[in-house]
Amino acid sequence: AEVIVVKNFKELEHIKDEVAGKIVLFNAEFTSYGRTVQYRMNGAIEAAKHGAVASLIRSVTP
Questions:
Q1: Among 62, 13, 17, which residue's Cα sits nearest to residue 42?
Q2: What is the pLDDT of residue 46?
Q3: How far apart are the first and last CA of the chain?
Q4: Which among 17, 51, 19 is positioned nearest to 3, based on CA atoms?
Q5: Which residues contact residue 3 at a Cβ distance below 8 angstroms, ignoring those fewer than 6 apart?
Q6: Is residue 1 very low, low, confident or very high in pLDDT (cuts 50, 70, 90)?
Q7: Spatial separation of the C-alpha atoms in residues 1 and 10, rounded to whole Å
Q8: pLDDT at residue 61, rounded to an integer
Q9: CA 36 from centre of chain
């Protein structure tokens, strides 16, 4: 499947119509572990809501 890169959940929501059948790669900028870990915890759920077949998360450490 094609990979589509997003920086955050807001960007994912903005392009939600383009996500179906694709792999979503969350490429979030590290600010703190507590803020960035949300993509590891919820990224797959949010991507699946829009029809993604998989999700990947860039390392949540700096």
A1: 13
A2: 98
A3: 28
A4: 19
A5: 22, 23, 24, 25, 56
A6: very high
A7: 22
A8: 80
A9: 11
Q: Can you tell me whether residue 54 is helix, strand or coil?
A: strand
Distances in whole angstroms, Cα of residue 13 to Cα of each of 30, 43, 48, 62:
20, 12, 12, 25
pLDDT digit string (tens) for 7-27? 999 999 999 999 999 999 999
CA angle in degrees (0–180, nearest 5) for 36-61-19: 50
pTM of full prediction above 0.85: yes
- Residue 57: strand, helix, or coil: strand
